[in-house]
Amino acid sequence: MTDTRVRTGNGRGRVVSAVLLVLTIGQLLVATFFASGLAQFEGKGFGARLVLYPVMMLTVPVIWWLTTKRRDDPPWAAFSWIMLPFLVDVTGNTLDLYDSIGWWDDANHFVNWMFLGFGAGLLITRAKPRPRWEIALLVAGIGAIMAIFWEIGEYYAFIRGGTELATAYTDTLGDEVLGTFGALTAGVVTAVRQRR
Protein backbone atom coordinates (compact mmCIF):
# COMPACT_ATOMS: atom_id res chain seq x y z
CA MET A 1 0.00 0.00 0.00
CA THR A 2 2.74 2.48 0.93
CA ASP A 3 4.73 1.54 -2.17
CA THR A 4 1.76 2.34 -4.39
CA ARG A 5 1.24 5.70 -2.72
CA VAL A 6 4.93 6.60 -3.05
CA ARG A 7 4.90 5.62 -6.72
CA THR A 8 1.72 7.61 -7.35
CA GLY A 9 3.21 10.67 -5.62
CA ASN A 10 6.40 10.29 -7.61
CA GLY A 11 4.39 10.01 -10.82
CA ARG A 12 2.56 13.26 -10.07
CA GLY A 13 5.78 14.97 -9.02
CA ARG A 14 7.47 13.86 -12.22
CA VAL A 15 4.58 15.28 -14.27
CA VAL A 16 4.71 18.62 -12.39
CA SER A 17 8.47 18.91 -12.97
CA ALA A 18 8.06 18.04 -16.65
CA VAL A 19 5.25 20.59 -17.10
CA LEU A 20 7.35 23.33 -15.44
CA LEU A 21 10.26 22.53 -17.76
CA VAL A 22 8.13 22.39 -20.93
CA LEU A 23 6.25 25.64 -20.16
CA THR A 24 9.52 27.46 -19.43
CA ILE A 25 11.27 26.22 -22.57
CA GLY A 26 8.19 26.93 -24.68
CA GLN A 27 8.05 30.56 -23.59
CA LEU A 28 11.81 30.94 -24.07
CA LEU A 29 11.53 29.61 -27.63
CA VAL A 30 8.71 32.05 -28.40
CA ALA A 31 10.63 34.98 -26.86
CA THR A 32 13.85 34.11 -28.68
CA PHE A 33 12.60 33.15 -32.15
CA PHE A 34 9.05 34.39 -32.68
CA ALA A 35 8.50 37.49 -30.54
CA SER A 36 11.98 38.88 -30.01
CA GLY A 37 10.87 42.29 -31.30
CA LEU A 38 8.46 42.84 -28.41
CA ALA A 39 9.61 45.43 -25.88
CA GLN A 40 9.46 43.07 -22.89
CA PHE A 41 12.05 40.75 -24.48
CA GLU A 42 14.48 43.31 -25.90
CA GLY A 43 17.90 43.50 -24.26
CA LYS A 44 17.13 40.85 -21.65
CA GLY A 45 19.37 38.04 -22.85
CA PHE A 46 16.68 35.61 -23.96
CA GLY A 47 19.10 33.75 -26.24
CA ALA A 48 21.30 33.04 -23.21
CA ARG A 49 18.25 32.18 -21.08
CA LEU A 50 17.10 29.65 -23.67
CA VAL A 51 20.34 27.74 -23.08
CA LEU A 52 20.95 28.43 -19.39
CA TYR A 53 17.47 28.11 -17.84
CA PRO A 54 16.91 24.47 -18.87
CA VAL A 55 20.46 23.64 -17.77
CA MET A 56 19.90 25.28 -14.36
CA MET A 57 16.48 23.65 -13.99
CA LEU A 58 17.96 20.21 -14.63
CA THR A 59 21.22 20.59 -12.69
CA VAL A 60 19.86 19.42 -9.32
CA PRO A 61 17.93 16.41 -10.73
CA VAL A 62 21.02 15.36 -12.73
CA ILE A 63 23.32 15.71 -9.70
CA TRP A 64 20.83 13.75 -7.60
CA TRP A 65 20.60 11.04 -10.23
CA LEU A 66 24.40 10.75 -10.57
CA THR A 67 25.17 10.74 -6.84
CA THR A 68 22.37 8.79 -5.17
CA LYS A 69 22.02 5.10 -4.70
CA ARG A 70 18.23 5.23 -4.15
CA ARG A 71 17.03 6.02 -7.65
CA ASP A 72 13.57 4.58 -7.01
CA ASP A 73 12.45 7.54 -4.87
CA PRO A 74 13.46 10.87 -6.52
CA PRO A 75 12.60 14.02 -4.55
CA TRP A 76 10.28 15.38 -7.24
CA ALA A 77 8.72 17.97 -4.92
CA ALA A 78 12.17 19.48 -4.28
CA PHE A 79 12.95 19.44 -8.00
CA SER A 80 9.65 21.18 -8.78
CA TRP A 81 10.23 23.93 -6.19
CA ILE A 82 13.68 24.55 -7.69
CA MET A 83 12.28 24.67 -11.26
CA LEU A 84 9.29 26.90 -10.48
CA PRO A 85 11.18 30.25 -10.23
CA PHE A 86 12.43 29.92 -13.81
CA LEU A 87 8.87 29.59 -15.07
CA VAL A 88 7.73 32.52 -12.91
CA ASP A 89 10.56 34.70 -14.27
CA VAL A 90 9.89 33.88 -17.92
CA THR A 91 6.13 34.27 -17.50
CA GLY A 92 6.67 37.66 -15.85
CA ASN A 93 8.56 38.77 -18.94
CA THR A 94 6.05 37.24 -21.33
CA LEU A 95 3.21 39.14 -19.64
CA ASP A 96 5.36 42.31 -19.46
CA LEU A 97 4.98 42.44 -15.66
CA TYR A 98 8.58 43.57 -15.02
CA ASP A 99 8.04 46.78 -17.00
CA SER A 100 4.38 47.41 -16.19
CA ILE A 101 4.35 46.76 -12.42
CA GLY A 102 6.97 48.65 -10.42
CA TRP A 103 7.26 46.19 -7.52
CA TRP A 104 7.20 43.01 -9.63
CA ASP A 105 10.98 42.55 -9.81
CA ASP A 106 11.42 42.96 -6.05
CA ALA A 107 8.56 40.58 -5.27
CA ASN A 108 10.07 38.04 -7.65
CA HIS A 109 13.44 38.08 -5.95
CA PHE A 110 11.83 37.42 -2.57
CA VAL A 111 9.23 34.86 -3.70
CA ASN A 112 11.41 33.01 -6.21
CA TRP A 113 14.20 32.59 -3.68
CA MET A 114 11.63 31.36 -1.19
CA PHE A 115 10.61 28.73 -3.78
CA LEU A 116 14.27 27.80 -4.33
CA GLY A 117 14.68 27.65 -0.55
CA PHE A 118 11.76 25.25 -0.20
CA GLY A 119 13.45 22.96 -2.72
CA ALA A 120 16.81 23.21 -0.96
CA GLY A 121 15.11 22.66 2.40
CA LEU A 122 13.42 19.49 1.19
CA LEU A 123 16.76 18.17 -0.05
CA ILE A 124 18.57 19.12 3.17
CA THR A 125 16.01 17.51 5.47
CA ARG A 126 15.57 14.42 3.31
CA ALA A 127 18.80 12.75 4.39
CA LYS A 128 18.53 13.13 8.16
CA PRO A 129 16.84 15.22 10.83
CA ARG A 130 18.76 18.40 11.66
CA PRO A 131 18.44 21.09 14.34
CA ARG A 132 16.06 23.88 13.33
CA TRP A 133 18.73 26.57 13.45
CA GLU A 134 20.94 24.51 11.13
CA ILE A 135 18.17 24.07 8.56
CA ALA A 136 17.32 27.79 8.59
CA LEU A 137 20.97 28.84 8.21
CA LEU A 138 21.77 26.25 5.53
CA VAL A 139 18.79 27.23 3.40
CA ALA A 140 19.48 30.97 3.88
CA GLY A 141 23.15 30.46 3.02
CA ILE A 142 22.36 28.47 -0.11
CA GLY A 143 19.87 31.19 -1.09
CA ALA A 144 22.41 33.97 -0.52
CA ILE A 145 24.99 32.18 -2.68
CA MET A 146 22.42 31.63 -5.43
CA ALA A 147 21.38 35.31 -5.24
CA ILE A 148 24.99 36.44 -5.69
CA PHE A 149 25.59 34.16 -8.67
CA TRP A 150 22.23 35.18 -10.19
CA GLU A 151 23.17 38.85 -10.05
CA ILE A 152 26.56 38.14 -11.61
CA GLY A 153 24.75 36.30 -14.41
CA GLU A 154 22.31 39.19 -14.91
CA TYR A 155 25.21 41.61 -15.10
CA TYR A 156 26.97 39.65 -17.84
CA ALA A 157 23.77 38.73 -19.70
CA PHE A 158 22.16 42.15 -20.12
CA ILE A 159 23.16 44.85 -17.62
CA ARG A 160 26.77 45.68 -18.54
CA GLY A 161 25.89 46.81 -22.06
CA GLY A 162 22.28 47.76 -21.49
CA THR A 163 20.21 50.69 -20.34
CA GLU A 164 20.05 49.62 -16.65
CA LEU A 165 23.74 50.18 -15.86
CA ALA A 166 23.17 53.47 -14.01
CA THR A 167 20.84 51.88 -11.43
CA ALA A 168 22.39 48.40 -11.40
CA TYR A 169 24.34 48.73 -8.12
CA THR A 170 21.33 49.68 -6.00
CA ASP A 171 19.11 47.15 -7.76
CA THR A 172 21.68 44.36 -7.35
CA LEU A 173 22.09 44.96 -3.61
CA GLY A 174 18.33 45.05 -3.13
CA ASP A 175 17.84 41.87 -5.15
CA GLU A 176 20.51 40.02 -3.14
CA VAL A 177 18.93 41.09 0.16
CA LEU A 178 15.42 40.13 -0.98
CA GLY A 179 16.65 36.79 -2.28
CA THR A 180 18.45 36.03 0.98
CA PHE A 181 15.38 36.94 3.06
CA GLY A 182 13.18 34.83 0.78
CA ALA A 183 15.49 31.84 1.30
CA LEU A 184 15.66 32.51 5.05
CA THR A 185 11.84 32.50 5.17
CA ALA A 186 11.82 29.14 3.41
CA GLY A 187 14.46 27.86 5.83
CA VAL A 188 12.41 28.86 8.86
CA VAL A 189 9.23 27.33 7.42
CA THR A 190 11.10 24.11 6.55
CA ALA A 191 12.63 23.94 10.04
CA VAL A 192 9.27 24.41 11.74
CA ARG A 193 7.60 21.81 9.51
CA GLN A 194 10.34 19.25 10.14
CA ARG A 195 9.97 19.64 13.90
CA ARG A 196 6.23 18.94 13.63
From TrEMBL:
The chain crosses the membrane at residues 15-34, 46-66, 78-95, 107-124, 136-157, 177-193. Keywords: Membrane, Transmembrane, Transmembrane helix. Signal peptide: none annotated. InterPro entries: YjdF-like. It comes from the Bacteria. It holds the Pfam family DUF2238. This is Uncharacterized protein. It comes from Kineosporia succinea.
